[in-house]
Structure formats: structure tokens, C-alpha cells
Amino acid sequence: MTKKVIIMLSLVMAVAVPQRASAYDAEALDLLKKSVSEWNAMRLSRPTESFDLSLAKLEKENLSGANLSRTLLERAQLSGAQLEHADLKASNLNRALITKAEMKGADMTGATLVEANLKGSFMKEASFRGANLQGANLKWVVLEDADVSRANLANTSLFEAHLERANLKGTNLQGAEFFTEATLEGAILSNNTILPSGQKATSNWASLHNARFEREEETALLTYATPTPVEVVVKQQSRATTQSAGLKEAENKAPQSALSGSDFENGSLDNANMEGFDLSNANFHKANMASIRLRGANLQGANLDRAFLHGADLSNANLSKAVLYGAMLQKANLSHANLEGASLFDANLEEANLEGANLRGANIAECNFNNATLSSLTILPSGKPATPGWAAMNQAKFVSGTKK
Asked: Which domains does the chain possess?
């Protein structure tokens, strides 16, 4: 990190670092990366212990066969990882980034993956039995021959998902998007399967979609475990280690508001107050920024590639030409924000407030607008005002114009 960023972090530390849960266990993470066999041996010697790997960076790591059961992996970065036949039973992977991972035969029984991004992952023959995947991104996943029975897939996106021969008996699919565009040939549904409409599956429905139907004893809809979200931040000890040299050199006269071009990559800024700051061209690549306050901030040209901005306040912020590729902006406040020319490719704007936002010239390909709020003052990429028809076509909500 640059000197100015270190100074700023010391100034907002009380806000940015809640005294709750800490991030991953560094020693455990190092052992896992070093050797899966040694990790598994350690787990065998400590069978009742759980481990905290929240926010861990495990992209493209070979974790095949790893025993990760009952592990906290909330918001972990696992994209491109090899997890073939890994044991992830009862683990917490809420909001984890697991795109294009190799997960053939992985055991996710009873795991929680609320709002996890599994787009494009290969999960043939995997088990998600009784797992909670509510709101997860399952676009283009391969779940052929997988066991998804009694799992919660409510409000998931199943665009072109491969579910051939998957066990969907008792699965809750209420509110799932693009289910009929998934490949369902040979998938098994039952009278306990809940369709996206909220109705129970029938033999006729299954037949029309090339699926199989099996009648079983009527059961009540399951309730699914949803662990209380933890505020995952970098451990104070690790922070001191990585920043001590810079802190010794810090010039306390540097202004908080002038941080143009600063580097926050992978930083932990959850709940920080940076209202009105000049953060133009700053780097927030994969930064954790849940509930951050950036009202009226200048983020022109900033790199927010895959940043975690759940619940962030970006109202009246200048995000023109910012890079928001794959950014997680669920429930963010972007009212009257300037997003002109911004890249929002694959960004998640579910339930975000876009009333009066300017999206002129923005790239919104693969963007998720589900239940986002638009108004007549919202400017679309075409330069035209948003309309109820455009909102409906993109599963968004439309309200009457609001003043700035």
C-alpha cells in the first residue's frame, strides 16, 4: 500500500476495523496451501475443530480431496480452484467467489452458499444435498448427475445451467431465474420439488421439460441454516506486520480527502467513512467494502474490479469510467451516482437503488438488475430515460422520478 493509504487507514481504523470476527487463520491457510495431505492429517488429529478461512485467497489453488468440512469460508476467493472430491460438508461459503472452479464429486452436503458466485463451475456428480444456495449465481454451471435434493435454490440464476440427470427431489426453486433455460434432460423431480412459480412440480411439468418425475411421501418444506454474517476483516496482527514500515514513515499532515491514485487492492474497508474523498483512479481491486460510505466521493476512473460493495452508500458519487467488472453491489445506494462510461460487466446490482443514476454509455452486459430500483430520472446506457418496460425486462422495479 502507498504511504497516503496507510495514513488514511490509521485515521479511519476505528470505523474500518470492527471489533468482531477476524479474517482467516494465517497458519491454517499456509498449511492448506503447502500440502493438502498435511492439512488433512491435521484435521484428522483435531476432528472436532473448525477453522476460519474467511476472505482467504485460494484462487487457482489445487485443493482436490481437501477436508474443508465445517470451515468458515465466507467471501473466500476460490475462482479457478481445483476442488475435485473435496469435503465441504456444513461449511459456510456465503458470498464466496467460486467461478470456473473444478468441483467434480465435491461434497457440499448441508453447506451454506448464500449469494455465492459459482458461475461456470464444473460440479458434475457433486452433492449439494440439503445445502442453502439462496440467491447464488449458477449461470453456466455443470451439475450433471449431481445430488441437489432438498437443497435451497430459491432466487438463484440458472441461466444455461446443465442439470442433466441431477437429483432435484424436494429442491426449493422458488423465484429461481431462467430455470426453463437450463438443460433438464433426465433430471429427477418429485411432488416435493418447488418450482420457480412456487407451485409443486408435477409429472406433466417434468415431461414437458424432458425431466423425470418420481412420487414420494409428502414432506414439509425444509428450513435452511443461514449463519449470521461475520464482519471479516484482516487481523490486527497481520495488518501491523504488513504496514509497520509504512507507518513509521507516515506524514500525518497528509489530507484524508486527497487519495487520488491510491492502492487499496485486497484492502479491508468494511463500514469505513470516506464520504467526499477524492479517490479518482484509485485501485480497489477485490477490496472488501461492505457498507462503506462513499457518498459524494470522486471515484472517476477507479478500479473496483470484483470489489465487495454490499450495502455501500455511493449516492451522488462520481463513478464515471470506473471499472466495476463483477463488482458485488447488492443493496448498494447508487442514487444520482454518475456511472457514465463505467464498466459494469457481470456486476451484481440486485436490490440496488439506481434512482436518478446516470448510466449513459455504461457497459451493463451480464449485469444483474434483479429488484434494483430505477426511476424516470435514471439515464440508461442509450442515453434515454429509464422506462417501466425496460425495468420489467431486466427484472428491476420502476418508481416515479425523484429529486436529487
From this structure: 19-232 (2.160.20.80), 253-404 (2.160.20.80)
